[in-house]
Automatic annotation (TrEMBL):
GO terms for biological process: negative regulation of DNA-templated transcription initiation. Residues 1-36, 65-108 form the SpoVT-AbrB domain. The gene is mraZ. One of its GO terms (cellular component) is nucleoid. Keywords: Cytoplasm, DNA-binding, Repeat, Transcription, Transcription regulation. It comes from Flavobacterium succinicans. This is Transcriptional regulator MraZ.
Amino acid sequence: MLPSPLKKQLASSLQDGFVLKRSVFQSCLELYPMAEWNVMMQKVNGLNRFVKKNNDFIRRFTAGVKVVEIDALGRMLIPKDLVGFASIAKDVVFSSAVTIVEIWDKELYEKSISGEDLDFAELAEEVMGNLNYNDNGIS
């Protein structure tokens, strides 16, 4: 069951449906509104399938992809193979990831954001430190 605030945010996408897939980097699932999935597939379809790495990537990226719908009550059926991949036991966390929603087992989510294995300040500087949002170089 999706939380009602999330369902409201996804309201414009409810009619088109969603794609649910395994995450590439984490033990969680990714929920793409169909419009976002189509944008991603345009990028993936631009890859040359005669390059072995590209072909291997496409196969693994699309492994386990399922088209899902959210019903009028805000429920979504997650297929068993994807529940197993994400090790979802009982409690679920829906986490915004810019244009998609990550779906996590609560314990795994808490562990992933605990910061025990990562210096977030260092990561933030490395990833975002060179971006300047204003012309004057002050972000």
